[in-house]
Amino acid sequence: MTTELDTLATALYVRVDDLLKSAPELVPWRPKVGIAPTLSDAELVTLAVLSALLGFHCERRWVRYAHAELRGMFPYVPQQSGYGKRLRRSIGLVMAVVRVLACDTALWSDEVWVADSTPVECGRSVETARRSALAGWAEYGYCASHSRYFWGLRLHLVCTLGGLPVLFALSGAKADEREVLLAMLAAAPRVLSEHPHQTIIADRQYYGRAFERELADRALTLLRPARAGEAERAGAHLFKPLRQTIESINQTFKGQLDLERHGGRSRAGVIVRIFIKVLALTAAVWHNDKTGQPIK
Predict the structure, then answer these.
(1) Residue 27 gets which letter from DSSP?
(2) Helices marked H in 54-194 — which ranges?
(3) Orientation of helix 177-186 relative to helix 209-217, angle to 10°
(4) Chain CA centroid to CA 55, Å
């Protein structure tokens, strides 16, 4: 690990520990009677973020690495089975930490958001699609950006232009992106109240009079490229450079955080592994913002 990563891990641990002290309702449920965990929840979240930032896709390999290399920072690391079980029970905490870190950055007040979705492949063979525990949620879909079919899910993102995740959700590969975006907005009324008259830049599949009317009812302005047969829309000169911004955010997840190599086999396993990657990106942006880095 580098000095910068050590600093990020220490700052993240302190922030999560303080959060759990001030909001104990975020602590994952556990029986009142029994042995108290040796690894704290703040240490667990920090370990999970480090695994994403260091590029580990296999929990077993990550636990072996942590036992060998990180005992100075984490005196106790559970075995792979215990680590995985605790991580799957910590989905709510992970989501809460994403929001807390995002709100604690200068990028949170940006007046422009970008919305898009990206594939999360969960398998390739026909046998996997039939027998997987994800069958029924994961499904076949098409990615127009890369001209490929895939079996899996889609990660829907609403981010600032600086790449800070504001809203995120997982859905089946064929889910209507407009419906998912509206559902994300409906599930986060506090975020909308903190960002009145926000502008959302999206791709051309976010279309429809009823859809745009619902966004307008939430005081949101939608900018998107014109579809075939439509007149040129406002802000058309911005779409090409900003499209690269959206693609660079997706590529950060895929190229640096290995989004599609999550290794999850159950719903809870996939969700927490994907959301840990969202948290890892948020933590990196938060750390760069707090340390005054020119690139967040």
Answers:
(1) S
(2) 59-69, 80-88, 91-103, 126-131, 177-186, 189-194
(3) 10
(4) 16
Q: Report pLDDT digits (tens) over 26-48.
A: 999 888 877 788 999 999 999 99
pLDDT digits (tens, 9 = 90+) for 65-81: 999 999 999 999 999 99
Domains of the chain by start residue, with CATH = 108-259 (3.30.420.10)
* 10, 102, 161, 193, 286 from 197: Cα distances, Å: 37, 19, 16, 9, 24
**pLDDT tens per residue, range 215-252:** 999 999 998 888 877 777 777 677 767 777 878 888 88
Alpha-carbon distance of 296 to 289, in angstroms, equals 6
d(CA 56, CA 238): 37
Which region, left, alpha or beta, applies to residue 197 given φ > 0 means left and ψ of -120 to 50 means alpha? left
Query: Could you tell me where the beta strands, DSSP code E, fall in 195-251?
Result: 199-202, 221-223
Predicted confidence (pLDDT) per residue in 73-124, tens digit: 999 999 999 999 999 999 999 999 999 999 999 999 999 999 999 999 998 8
| Residue 57 structure tokens | 């896709």
d(CA 170, CA 179): 12
Compute the distance between CA of residue 229 and CA of residue 226 in angstroms, rounded to an integer.
8
